[in-house]
Amino acid sequence: MAETLKKDLYFDKTIPDHETFLNANDFINAKILRDSIELGDDINEVIDDSAMYNKNRFEGDIVNNGLTSRSIKSFMGEQNFTKTIGVMRNAVRQTYLKWSDGRIPYTISSQYSSFSRSKIAEAIEEYRKLTCIDFAPKSAADVDYIHIVPDDGCYSLVGRVGGKQPVSLGDGCIQKGIIIHELMHSVGFFHEQSRSDRDEYINIKWENVEAGLQDQFEKYDLKMIDHLDTKYDYGSVMHYASTAFSKNGKITIEPRKKGVEIGQRVGFSPLDLYKINKLYNCPQLVKPPTDEISEEVIETTTTKFKKISKKPIRQEVEVDSNEEVIDNSIVDEDKENIENSDKYNKRFSKKKGSISSGEVNISGIDTESGEDDNNHNESNERMSKLTKLKTKLCKDKRRDCKFLAENNHCQIKISKKFMKDNCSKSCGLCKMIKESVDYEDDNNCKDSRSWCGKWADSGMCQQAMFREYMKEKCPKSCDFC
After folding, report:
1. Which residues does the annotation say bind Zn(2+) (predicted)?
2. CB contact at 8 A, 143 and 27
3. How many H helices and E strands in the chain?
């Protein structure tokens, strides 16, 4: 793996900066990196976020033109926009600063190494799995987009500002948590310690702050920042570290709550996710996470799904209680050489018939003439449900499948397995069922939200934090009924 993913060269600025996109290989490499970390391989260096604290930038890593602690009131709408648009919600509630439908077109510099591209892919995959934010390859029609480039340190603009806007991931920035942090600025969020109520939760040690940088610790009242009805989040990936802008290496931010840590750069906190999904009207929990949960960090390196309904869900089949069902668990295709393994779908075996990776084998079902009518009807019913499930499984699991397929990743040897598991529909790999097979939808099985299909396709039905919400609002799209 060391030969494939070099970490000693993050980018090469002697190469012209062309706009490219992440491809299937980048996401495959991201998974290899993730698996290696799980196995204890020391691929990642010790996290160091010092590159995020540039004294010449607003709050260290924000580069909106002319934005300072004195001009932020105008930027955030306190003066001209409050009456017509409303206050900010922890960042950008103004329509012109939010990305339409949560879609953020992007390009990535050709100067990045394979290792850096895989780390950026890993961070973008976190957004795809846990939010409705869609970092989509820029199309010819997109005028506003972000360009990820290895410029001077780490920085971003807050929200959608128009045109080509840079997200710099330079020296010291190729770490998943830092990438997530900078992209969250692009989504529309400022730093956590800028909240108006921050003094109830932290103490600023002004005596340790570098001279002239006191304005990097400004806070902004509720006319400018709405906290989205959430508690202060010590665990936010958007929180300053304890020694930010220190002149002597001593702490500049001291949590009032004993034993908590601030400035983590591992990944999203539950409250980070809640706020993103609330800002963009994505599916979410009815209530925000509690204080105890908010100090945790979402770990998404492995995800296990459990059965929550007696009726078929995306990767389950309904069976009689006296039939034997074997849960073979999720098998990692990169660790086990099993052709039909699928990280998104569990493999279930029936005593007489099986379903694996969307393919149905019904050769073992007994249809001899001696079978009574009731058993025959039950068998036909099971076959109908299996066929319906097969159709449901024959769909793309990623929003960029069409783009990847158009760029021939279905045929490239190194990415063929990845595309089979994630983009079977776009690659034309599904064995379509006969048109004569028909079923009747349950009249009570209806979605109550127009966007249910989109969020089901993005994986929200299986994510623990959204499951109850999706079960209530989108039972049909999620196959809960």
Report:
1. 181, 185, 191
2. no
3. 11, 12
481: pLDDT strictly greater than 50 = yes
Residue 227 annotated as part of some ligand binding site? no
**Which helix or strand (DSSP H or E) is residue 388 part of?**
helix 373-393
- Is there a binding annotation on residue 185? yes
Task: Please report which confidence band the pLDDT of residue 408 belongs to, taking 50, 70 and 90 as the band edges.
Answer: confident
154-155 and 134-137 beta bridge pairing: unpaired
- The whole-angstrom separation of Cα 3 and Cα 209 is 43
What three-state secondary structure class fits 166? Answer: strand
More confident site: 36 or 299: 36
Determine contact, residues 135/124, Cβ cutoff 8 Å. yes
Q: What average pLDDT does range 232-259 have in this prediction? A: 95
DSSP secondary structure string for all residues of 17-66: --EE---HHHHHHHHHHHHHHHTT---SPPP--GGG--TTSBTTTB--TT
d(CA 433, CA 387): 7
Q: Are 198 and 180 in contact (CB under 8 A)?
A: no
The encoded tokens of residue 371 equal: 């079978």
Angle between helices 114-130 and 176-187 (to 10 degrees): 60
> How many whole angstroms separate alpha carbon 481 and alpha carbon 475?
6
Query: Residue 424 is encoded by which pair of tokens?
Result: 């079977």
The tokens describing 174, both together, are 């190729």
Residues 423, 397 contacting (CB under 8 angstroms): yes
Measured CA to CA, the distance from residue 315 to residue 462 in angstroms comes to: 10
Residue 285: per-residue pLDDT: 47
Q: Residue 315 in contact with residue 345, Cβ under 8 Å?
A: yes
Q: Which helix (H) or strand (E) segment is 406 a member of?
A: helix 401-406
247-251, 272-276, 368-372, 406-410: which is most confident:
247-251
Residue 6 has φ and ψ, to the nearest 5°, of: -85, 130
Catalytic residue among 182, 192, 316, 333: 182
| Known catalytic membership, residue 378 | no
Is-contact 419 409, C-beta < 8 A?
Answer: yes
Looking only at the bridges linking them, the beta strands covering 353-356 and 348-350 are antiparallel
The CA dihedral of 258, 259, 260, 266, to the nearest 10 degrees, is 170
Cβ within 8 Å of residue 224, ≥6 positions away? 72, 73, 76, 77, 78, 87, 88
Residues sharing a CB contact under 8 Å with residue 10, sequence separation 6 or more, in sequence order? 112, 113, 115, 116, 150, 171, 174
What is the DSSP code string of 84-109?
Answer: TT---SSB--SGGGSPGGGEEEEEEE
What residues does 445 pair with on adjacent strands? Answer: none
Instruction: Classify the phi-psi angles of 66: left when phi > 0, otherwise alpha if psi is within -120 to 50, otherwise beta.
Output: left
